[in-house]
Amino acid sequence: MPRPPSSRAPATPAAPPSARAARPPASTAHPSPSIYLISPSGAVADPDRARHAAGVLAAHGLPARFDPAALKRAQRFAGTDAERAGAFARAAAQHAPIVMITRGGYGLTRLLPRLDFRTLARAGKQWVGLSDFTAFHLAMLAKARAITWAGPALLDDFAVDAPGDVDPTTIGCLREAMSGELEMLGFRAGGPSGVDERGTLWGGNLSVLSAMLGTPWFPKVKGGILFVEDVNEHPYRIERMLVQLLHAGVIDAQRAVVLGYVNRYALAPHDRGYDLPAALRWLRAQTKVPIVTGLPFGHDRPKLTLPHGAPVGLATEGRSGWLVLDHVNHEH
Question: What's the whole-model pTM score?
Answer without folding.
Answer: 0.90
